[in-house]
Amino acid sequence: MVELNGIVGEELAMLSDKWSKVRRLLYLFSEWVCVRLSESVVVVGPRIYRYARRRYRLAEDRVHLVENGVSPIFFVQRDRALLRAQFGMKEDEIWLAFAGGLYPWHGMLIVVEAFGKLPPEAGHLCLMVAGDGPERVALTKRVAELKMEDRIRWIGRKSHEEIA
User: Is pTM beyond 0.70 here?
Assistant: First the structure.
């Protein structure tokens, strides 16, 4: 069994370094080998389901859609005031959150740019980013260029338990 949780060709096309073309070919080849040798392919979304069926000409009964989700076991009522104090959040601020790898295909640059276009009266909207990855330096630089350091908090990698 193999799981496809993204369209690797599209994701790797967003990377640009001296090895990106070679890396892309190797990843696509290894994906092809794994899919062809597996009895079942599990995908995490409808778009990836269509991609897998079309690209590998797979029979419908060989591809299984199991959409991404979050276990509710991690989300229990917690002391809001304590958590806000822990992260330095003001009571009148509204915080959006991202948790995951900072890769181009996650679109965090779009989020940062959108925050930069908010009007001054939306200054109570903030963003907390849990995670790390190759886009971190560029994102941090762009946040500084937009003078939004006070509205975006980078908290680094966290365990699943800490994310909740």
Answer: no
What does residue 20 show for φ and ψ, rounded to 5 degrees?
Answer: -60, -40
Question: Which amino acid is residue 20, in one-letter code?
Answer: S
Task: Measure the CA–CA gap between 114 and 68, rounded to whole angstroms.
Answer: 25
Q: DSSP string of the chain?
A: -EEE-S-HHHHHHT--STTHHHHHHHHHHHHHHHHHH-S-EEESSHHHHHHHHHHHT--GGGEEE------GGG-----HHHHHHHTT--TT-EEEEEES---GGG-HHHHHHHHHTS-GGGTTEEEEEE---TTHHHHHHHHHHTT-TTTEEEEE---HHHH-
In the block, residue with structure tokens 């940062």: 112
**Phi and psi at residue 142, to the nearest 5°:** -65, -40
pLDDT, one tens digit per residue, over 76-117 is 888 889 988 988 888 889 999 999 999 988 889 999 999 999
Residue pair 139/131 in contact by the 8 Å Cβ criterion: no
